Amino acid sequence: MASLMSVPDKIETPVEGERDRRIAELEAENERLKRIRDALIVRVESGSAHKPEPYAAFEHSVVLAEQVRERTEALNQAMEQLKGSNKALNRAREEAETTRQRLSDAIESIADGFVLFDNQHCLIQSNSRFRSYWRHAGVDAPGQGTRISDVKRQAVACGLVLEEHSHPDSEGVVFLLANGRWVQVTERPTREGGLVVLYSDITDVKNSEMARRIKALEESERWIRVVTDHVPALIAYIGADMTIQFCNKVYASWYGRKGESPLGKRLNEVHSPEFYQRLLPQILDVMDGHNVTFEFEETGEQGEVRHMLRSYVPNFDEQGDIIGFFVLIRDITDRRKTALALEQAYDNLERRVKERTAALTGLNSQLRQEITERAAVEARLRDAKLEAERANLSKTKFLAAVSHDLLQPLNAARLFTSALLEQSFGPKAEGLVRSVSTSLDDVENLLGTLVDISKLDAGVIKPDVTAFDLRDLLNNIAREFRQMAIAEGLQLDFVASSAIVESDSQLLARILRNFLTNAIRYTGNGRVLLGVRRQKDHVLLQVWDTGPGIPEDKLTEIFQEFKRIRPAGSQPDKGLGLGLAIVDKISRMLGHEVTVNSIEGRGSVFSVRVPVGKLKPRQPTADQNRAVSFDSGLGGARIWVIDNDQSICQGMQTLLEGWDCQVVTAVSLEDLERQLDPASSAVDLILADYHLDNDENGVDVVAEINGRRRCPAPVVMITANYTNELKQHIRELGHLLMNKPVKPLKLRSALSHLLRS
């Protein structure tokens, strides 16, 4: 292609000039020989006294005639050769002309704009598509001889080019033209030092990419709204103009007057003037960039009075300007009433004790009455305490229910998306499925963070401290975050360790994951290091990064709830500022010291101090739970799935059948009995949900099934309950416990391990 493009418009023929010159020389030589021949003949024929002998003259003329004949034959041969050369030259000229015409036709047939420059970068040739761009702008296209720098300058000056976009990883520069079309400009050098420039129309690609992004954003917004509508709190987003730009159903139900939604209204239109004036100081404070938390009493549309705990969190744009704030409102009326009841009970008790103590000095006769009244006060105090304990228990049950109900649809969605990822739908469909999976990850992380912080505050989570080897925990975490780091353009280095520590492995892993998440999130470039330092009776698990660092006066502030120290110019993230707050609560629960050291502009290091432990010897146990043996993979495994949620059953069946398993799903034991005989049917493994309908649980159902069988089947118990009591109970039964939402890769690894054992 490059050689064809380099053919000039006119082909020079130096052979033709050389041929004419040679012919002229031979003709002159021929004429000279003819004259010599004629002179010799005349001389022989007109012999005289002073001439040579006739015979000698004749002999000399014969020699000359022979020489003339040889020269004539050589001349004729040269003439024949010149005629052949002339024919070859004519054929070459015709072929060159045909080639030039074909090149012109090929250039003209190209769908893209085409321009050819010589080795001086002057324009030689262009096609009609290139010239049409200039006609749309109302100017003439550059002519032959125009330099490439002048072409670029004229395109900007006449308004042909409206925008220019370039990226180091892209093949060329992208321009937006005056006719609304997008073109990508690609330059290629020729072998002779010239330049070929192609203008490719990529408008359809741009429009398709924009449509895909808009669809992904709409899907993400739909999931966020579904989640926020099911959270038992008032959630809203207020713009800089004090307009409610987003709110969930609970917020709209509380502040929607006469059935009208508050969405799109200003705060002073939603609240009464008096209440808005009470909120105004806190609004001004959050618009100055501060997190604000405060309590207010509010009166609903029906006249009910509720006590609300409000949290305002500012929202910053890429330039660091505040463009609005998030609103989180929780109803703490019941908690407030309980606290007031306790306070009143204590006040009454103290007052009565003082009164009765003073009266005892002079009124011994009223001793029994005083004792009775005091007992009544103590009874009321016990009732108040019992009420507080019931409220705390109710909160614990609520958290467990929220965890289960919210994680159920997320678990089903993750199973379906994992099954879709293993199918072949083409790159576009796979990209959409991965976008859904990423959105589910974001929702899962946000919900997990909110539920975890609530459980830690309520004291639901209890540590299960044991001695274990750090090797597997650190290897798994390093593998998990290495791909995340690569996606962000970072290098994750990992120093393995086989130290034995005394801690709760899951809670310790949560601390390290939060450290690594923050390190990757705030490190623009460079690397992140995960390693262990051994000291006398403890080890330091550390995460180093080369991020922007943390100011010294903010080192304690980062462990507060909803606090995020975002460096100037950094991109906004989706976090709630609860990661390090969770780390602080978990470390206090475990008794592990957490420290942070940072140098602004160079990076930070987060450390957690864990005591050294000693492993207990393991007792070998015989495994009799296998019905058949599997040499590799899950192919042909017979698995029963028991879950009261039909969508979970469908998602699990789709995922397991994609792994070549034989799956039977049931929502209860009765449903399973309708499909097969649990006592005699072949099964290799049972997957059961702990929470079932009608106050049943998976442990009892599995016990009933295995009680009927001659050889019990191995069991994987799945639950959203994170309590140590349940974990210990499942462990004592010999079952494997997995928490929701289930990670498909982790599930496959666990099933493979159980089926191979």
UniProtKB/TrEMBL annotation:
InterPro entries: CheY-like_superfamily, HATPase_C_sf, HATPase_dom, His_kinase_dom, HisK_dim/P_dom, HisK_dim/P_sf, PAC, PAS. It catalyses: ATP + protein L-histidine = ADP + protein N-phospho-L-histidine. The modification 4-aspartylphosphate is found at D689. Residues 23-109, 332-394 form a coiled coil. Residues 401-614 form the Histidine kinase domain. Pfam families: HATPase_c, HisKA, PAS_4, PAS_7, Response_reg. GO terms for molecular function: histidine phosphotransfer kinase activity; phosphorelay sensor kinase activity. Keywords: Coiled coil, Kinase, Phosphoprotein, Transferase. It is an enzyme of class 2 (transferase). It comes from the Bacteria. One of its GO terms (cellular component) is plasma membrane. This is histidine kinase. It comes from Marinobacter salsuginis.
